[in-house]
Amino acid sequence: MTNLNDIFAFDDMLHKLHLVKRSELARGKDRRENDWEHGYQMAMLCWYLADSSEELNLNLKKVIAYALAHDVVEVYAGDTPFHQTDEKKTS
User: Fold this and answer.
1) C-alpha span between 18 and 15 (Å, rounded)
2) Which of 56-82 are b and which e, b meaning 16 or more Cβ less than 10 Å from the residue's Cβ?
3) 8 Å CB contact between 12 and 25
4) Angle formed by the axes of helices 60-69 and 35-52, to 10°?
5) Full pLDDT tens readout for the chain, 91 residues
6) What is the C-alpha to C-alpha distance for residues 72 and 16, in angstroms, rounded to an integer?
7) pTM of the full predicted structure?
8) From CA 77, how far away is CA 20, in angstroms rounded?
């Protein structure tokens, strides 16, 4: 079993997700979305897709785990804009 200090450390790291501002504006808003909002929205969307589409044959547990975890590294690295030019990516 994971010790309590590891659980608290993981929880502290997760709380930092709301501090990471994404490069894109939140849909319909005049502010940038944060990684916490983005991850939650992706998880809910993936849950909907996996649950409502039998032909996709998606593993619900994996899909939600990927949606929740895909931007966790940005706590340490910051957001990398999807539409950034190659020149800006290398600088």
Assistant:
1) 6
2) eebeeeebbeebbeebbebbeeebeee
3) no
4) 170
5) 679 999 999 999 999 998 999 887 778 888 888 999 999 999 999 999 988 888 888 899 999 999 999 998 899 988 888 776 655 555 5
6) 9
7) 0.73
8) 9
What's the confidence (pLDDT) of residue 8?
A: 95
78: region left, alpha or beta (phi > 0 left; psi from -120 to 50 alpha): left
Whether 17 and 71 have beta carbons less than 8 Å apart is answered as yes
For residue 86, what pLDDT is reported?
59
Domain ranges of the chain: 22-79
pLDDT score at 29:
80
Q: Left, alpha or beta for 57 (phi > 0: left; psi -120 to 50: alpha)? A: left
